Write a sequence for this structure.
């Protein structure tokens, strides 16, 4: 039986193997934060050390997104009424990427043992409450992007 080789040609002169594509898949922990506008800078200063604890414990990446334009576009509705944001709040998003659910649990276990976690969380908890936080976990799925060419050799 011969070897199976799969190659993606994506865009101009860019290619990657199927194996690389699988390795780039991720399990994401996503938090939505309703942050009072007057506390936005303090929120950012409070959450960044917590995010660093996760990166230091092995999280693949941490990303914090601040709203730029919350209006509905491209035929979509705005998120503002969906989460009940008031005029005095902003919706911030944190995305933590892991290899898979087991990797996420391992990283969380390491962070839970970190003696700095309580200090950072107490600062964070003074700014927003659990009623202003939403959480969900997502798993990336492979897809075939526009213009991709898939070749196989068996």
């Amino acid at each position: 039986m011969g070897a199976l080789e799969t190659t993606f040609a994506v865009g101009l002169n860019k290619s990657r193997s199927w194996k690389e594509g699988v390795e780039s898949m991720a399990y994401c922990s996503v938090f939505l934060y309703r942050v009072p506008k007057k506390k936005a800078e303090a929120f950012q200063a409070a959450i960044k050390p917590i995010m660093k604890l996760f990166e230091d414990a092995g999280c693949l990446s941490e990303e914090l997104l601040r709203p730029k334009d919350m209006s509905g576009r491209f035929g979509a509705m705005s998120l503002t009424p969906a989460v009940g944001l008031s005029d005095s709040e902003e919706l911030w998003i944190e995305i933590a990427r892991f290899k898979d659910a087991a990797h996420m649990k391992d990283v969380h276990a390491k962070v839970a043992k970190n003696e700095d976690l309580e200090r950072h969380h107490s600062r964070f908890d003074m700014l927003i409450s659990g009623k202003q936080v939403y959480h969900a976990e997502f798993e990336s799925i492979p897809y075939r992007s526009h213009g991709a060419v898939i070749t196989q050799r068996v």
Notes: The two ends are 8 Å apart (CA to CA). Helices lie at 18-23, 40-56, 79-82, 101-112, 117-125. Residues 1-23, 149-154 have pLDDT under 50 and may be disordered.
